[in-house]
Structures are given as C-alpha cells and as structure tokens.
Design a protein that fits this description.
homodimer; alpha+beta; Immunoglobulin-like; Rossmann fold; eight-stranded mixed sheet; six-stranded antiparallel sheet; 11 helices; 28% helix; globular
Chain lengths: 394, 394
C-alpha cells in the first residue's frame, strides 16, 4: 500500500513535468517590471523571466508582443483588452515593442530607452546578481548632460559625464577618465539608462573595489557630413576598403571628434589627470570595435582598453600598432556566454584564443564571460563590473 | 479695360480667400518636427502650425491623432499607411498621442516627454520668438542628475540640477539657488526637457541679462507614504481641510521634503549662498500653487517667488503670512493670454487684480502675459525668460 502511494506520487510528479513541458504552463507570479512608468501595472515579469503585456485596443484585429526577435500573439478579452506573454527571457534588460494591426509602437506602460535606432520600450528581468547595479543608499555620483561645440563637425554635440561621489568636495583632487561607448543603434544615453553604469560605479566605490574616475559617454554614431561623398572604389586595385572591416570612415570619423573635440573639452571642463596613463577607452559591440581601432592607432593617448561583445585584439594587430605593446597596460575582452555558443566574432578570429595569445605575447589581458546572457545589456553591465576595478590601479 | 482687369484680380483674390476658408485648405510646407527621433521624417509641422502624423498600420480599422483635446481621423492609403493632420496649434511645445483601433500609444516618430502622467509624444511648433530657447554656440551650463536619500520618505529620490557655465572654473564663487517646480502629471524632467530652461539660462547669461544662479528641479508630486492614512474628517467641526485648497497634505508633503531633505542636500553638495536673500522658489501650475503655499509659510527661507499659470498671491494672503511682506523681494505672476480669456484662476481671485493690489500694498510685483498661448509650455518658457532677469539682482 505504501509503495503504491509512493509510486502514485512519483507518477503524479512525472505527469506533472510532462504536462508542464507540453502545455508550456505559465507560473502565475507576475510583478510589474522595475522600469515601468510610475503607477503602471503592466508590463509584468514572472519568476521564469516571461514578459506579460496588456493593452486596451477594443477595435484591433491582431496585437503582438515583439521581444527577442520573436512575435507572440496576444488574446483579447470581452472588454477589448489584449493580454499575453513571451517565452522566458535572459536575466537583465531587453528592448521590445508592441505590434497593433501592423503598427510597431512602444508599450505605453514602460519607460523608454534608445536602442535599435529608436526610443522604445524596455523591460527588466530580475537577475540573481542584480545587487551590483541596484539603487542603494550609498554616496552617489552625478550624471551630467553637457552641450558643446564640435569644431570637426561645425555643430553642437551632447555627451553625458559621470563624476564620482566626492568630486564636488575634493576640489584639489584630479581624476582619471574612461571614455565609454555604446553600441550600434544606441546613443550617449545607453550606458547610464540601460547600463546603470553610474549605479555600478557608486556601488563599487562604496565597497572600496575601484579607484574613483570620471566616465565620458558620447555619441559614437558617425554620419558623413552633408555633401561629403566617399571616393569611388578603384576595382582595378586591391582597394583597402574591400579588406578593412569596419570601413575606415566609420571609426575614423568618431576618432577625429574624440581626439580633437571631446578629450580637450573634457580636460578643460573637468579636473582630469590629462595624460595617457590616466585615460582609458572601452565600448560595447560597435563601441568595442571603435575602441579597438582608436586605441590601436593611439597608444600614446589611451593606456587601458575594454571591449564588451565587440571583437578582440590579436597579436598581429599589436605587431602592426607601434608602441601599443609598450604603452597599453590592460586589454580587457568580454562576451556573453550565448555569444560564444553562437559566435559573433567579427573578422578578427576567436576572442578567447586571441586574448590568450596576446597574454602569452606579453600583454596584460583579461577575458570574462557573462554566464547565460547573449548580445545584451546584462552582459555589458557585468563586463563593466569586472573591468572597472582593473582600471588605473597602480 | 484696365479697371476690368483690376476688378477681376480683386474678385479672384476674394474668391481665393473664400475658398481657403471653406475647404480649410492645408498649406503644403510641412517639415519634420524639431523633437523627432534621429532620422524620422514624421511627425511634421507646417507654417500654419498644423501637425501631420504618419504611421504604417495596414490591418487597422481606425487611426486618430489626439492633440489639444481633439481627435483627428487619419486616412489610409493603398499601402496601409495612415496619414492626416490637426488644426493649427499654438506656437511651442505640445503633448500628443496616437489612437490605433482604440489603443492610446505614443507616436514612434518622436522623442518622449513626461506629462499627463505618462511618457508620451511631443511636438514643437516653431515660434516667432524661439531664439530665446534655441541651442546656440554659447557657453553652456550642465544639467546634472542626482540620486539622494530622503530621511522624510525613507527612500531614494532623484532631482536635476542646472549649474551655470563657469561653475566648474570659478571654484571660489558661490551662487544663489532657484527651486523650480513642474506641473501636475509632470515630473523633475519637465523644466529641462520641455521647458529648455537650461538653454534659456545659457542664452540669457551669454547676453548678460541675468545673474548666474543654480536651478534645482525636483519631483513635487506627493504620494502618501505607504500605510499612512489621513485622519478621519470631523464633520461636526469647521474642518480646515474643507476650506483650504489645495488640500494641506498636498503641498505640506513636498514642503517637508524640500525643507528637510532637498535644501540641506543642495547646500552641502553645491557652492550655494545658503541664505534667504539668495534662495528663490517658482513653479508652473501645480508647482505654482505649491510655491504659493510654501513661500507664504516660509518667508525666512525664500526671498523671490514665481508662479507661472498657478494662481496668484493676494493682499489677504500676505496679511495672514507673518514677515512675508518685509522679507520677500519679488512676487512674479504670469499666465498665457488664452488662460485669462478662459479663466483658470483657482479660488484666489483674479491674478492680475490680485497682483496690482499687492503692488499698491507695497510689494515688488511683476505681472506677465504670454501672447496667444494657453496652459502650456510656451507660456512657461516665456514666463521663466521674464522672471530670471529679476532674480538676485541687487
């Protein structure tokens, strides 16, 4: 009798698991997302990382949730309210949108973030390690919006500058600077809005894990000045542009603004230590690729290099970059683990192998893999969290 | 023959005007709005101030543009693209949204602004006087985002602080401070995002029209702390809450945070001149009403008072506020002209009459009317532009 009971329980548990897998049963413990607008109950997230959205659209024929490159159909109730949820998402921040009868629009329940070349909805899946970027009652730095004139572009530009707590009080202290770049389709707001880099720094500083430094976040998207056209490609020659990727103008344009406008402006407006030893550059995705090109070409300007999901630096790169090996004190490379399962490695070879070879070649390298994340902000938050304590630490 | 020709021309012109009025003909000189997202062609604005929106929604039954409390039907072309325009709008900034088959959503073409208790679309109608808030190549101040702990609320809060150009360089100089509040349904982002108060200040400073001062923009919306309930109203007595408007808790809550948390925090983090003579308060709409109550109750804290479309201060108010007449150096009241045509005067009487009486009573008052604008941001930009040069000018 006892054995029968146990067998029944085991069978019940087994059936339950099967049923779970078959019907894709949703765990009903949804809570409003952390980045919802004040007072908005939807979207919500559950403990599996599913996203549930809700929107009133009584006359609509078809409403979808578009997240992680998958479109999920919502269902309409008798009050004309559409509701539905996604498959489980990775921990951390994700962009998404709604599709209402063919119109792609932001969800009116969320705050908006710039990514995928638009201001759109975002959602935050609570992460097991979210404490490192949580808003806490610790001393906080400031994120400052600056308008400045670019001589290179002959127009106004905008950047954001993080100054660490104490910057205002310690008026005789000067600080190192990190130039930190966003990815393609993002802009100068990304690292503070989605990346929470200011909160990561505040928390690291409160724990004494990092030297205080200034972070400059500018817009690395490069638009060719109006009227300027590329020279026609010479197909009879081994045209450099056919081999170089990314195309030269793509990083050169921002490099020009960075070296001629941004760095001098920052060194004049802030109490920086304006030398190579105390100047770093890092970036994610496109910003990482820009960091690679700009630092390989300017080892007299930058001493610490970080690339998050944006390629790597090979021994060959360094052999072709005079003074890079001697002058650069850190090459930090990171990726999300899912990126390495499904490689997005660019044309520069395997990032882990490259970084290992570069260490054997004699450079100070670090390689970090964010567990169970892809080409997304949780990888970059974690990358920064690993990178920051290695900076300016002499 | 000559007379006949002239008569024909006159008749033609006359017919043309009639036709114009009858068909509400739209002038086809639309241009993308200044606050569109990068690269977005729509929404657009024409020289009449009409707003034209465009959205792809091939399966939709009904799409509307919702602006200025009017809903305009759009029409669909053969490609499933909906397009249409509004009646002419006032100069300046307006909130709006789209309605797609009953769903109220932001227009994916615009940047987003917080108002009407939501992050939503905004549009900028070019104004004849827009130079005063234009982004120019002049020295620029900084707009800083601060996170700080509130002892009153036992939680983190956020504010934005404008520091004038030169604040970083002139490390021995101390500055007066203006506390500047948004309206109902808005938040601490309003005065810089929609109000462009930083650009107005930068331009005024470049022209030498104003003394440099710091501007603190915090969130004046007051939410009762969780678990705290109002005492039951005593209907047998002449309960103060029945007579006072706005309700006491509504302004008292923010007053408490302002006096106990915000002002001490600002005076500790910035090089302020921390005294009454160098501290002003102003606000728009709800923020003006809060300014009225807070400054009437604290004439030892604030010396300059500004209320934009938010009521006025009467002689009776001042007679009931000890030390206000002696201590306060400026009472500035402004409105949009359309607000005075269709009064939104609150329970305190006619603002112009009140302000005139207060001047006769012996106080330094200013009354300003923004031409051909309503309860909207163009009125408040202009109000601030008139108010700022009167501050701290001894």
């Amino acid at each position: 009798m006892k054995y029968l009971q146990i067998a029944t329980v085991i069978f019940a548990l087994f059936s339950c698991n099967i049923a779970f897998a078959q019907t894709d049963k949703v765990v009903e413990d949804f809570e409003p997302s952390e980045v919802n607008q004040q007072g908005k109950e939807y979207p919500q997230v559950n403990s599996e990382g599913r996203v549930r959205v809700r929107i009133e659209a009584p006359q609509a024929n078809n409403v979808q949730l578009d997240i992680g490159a998958v479109k999920y159909d919502l269902t309409k109730d008798e009050d004309g309210v559409w509701i539905g949820e996604s498959a489980p998402q990775d921990e951390g921040f994700h962009y998404y949108q709604l599709n209402i009868d063919g119109a792609s629009v932001p969800d009116p329940g969320t705050k908006y973030f710039y990514g995928a070349s638009r201001w759109g909805s975002g959602i935050e899946i609570p992460a097991h390690d979210q404490e490192f970027y949580a808003l806490k009652n610790v001393p906080h730095g400031q994120v400052r919006e600056l308008q400045y004139y670019s001589d290179v572009q002959e127009s106004m530009r905008r950047c954001f500058v993080y100054t660490p707590p104490g910057y205002e009080k310690n008026v005789d202290k000067r600080y190192p600077v990190l130039y930190l770049q966003h990815g393609g389709g993002e802009n100068e707001t990304g690292w503070s809005n989605q990346g929470k880099v200011n909160l990561i720094m505040d928390n690291l500083l409160a724990e004494g894990e990092v030297e205080p430094f200034i972070i400059v976040m500018d817009n690395g998207s490069w638009y060719r000045p109006r009227g300027e056209r590329p020279a026609p490609r010479d197909t009879t020659q081994n045209d450099e542009r056919e081999r170089s990727w990314p195309p030269k103008g793509w990083a050169d344009g921002f490099m020009n603004v960075l070296l001629k406008d941004i760095i001098p402006m920052i060194d004049s407006k802030f109490r920086t230590i304006p030398n190579q030893e105390n100047r770093a550059m890092a970036g994610l995705s496109m910003g990482g690729m820009q960091t690679r090109i700009i630092t390989l070409n300017n080892p007299d300007v930058f001493s610490h290099v970080g690339m998050f999901s944006g390629g790597s630096i090979s021994v060959e790169d360094v052999e072709n970059a005079p003074d890079f090996k001697e002058n650069v004190k850190l090459v930090f490379i990171s990726y999300g683990s899912r990126e390495l399962e499904n490689p997005r490695r660019g044309p520069w070879g395997d990032p882990k192998e490259n970084t290992k070879a570069l260490k054997e070649y004699g450079m100070n390298t670090h390689f970090y893999v964010s567990p169970e994340t892809a080409h997304e902000w949780q990888s970059w938050r974690r990358g920064f969290y690993q990178f920051a304590p290695l900076l300016f630490d002499e």
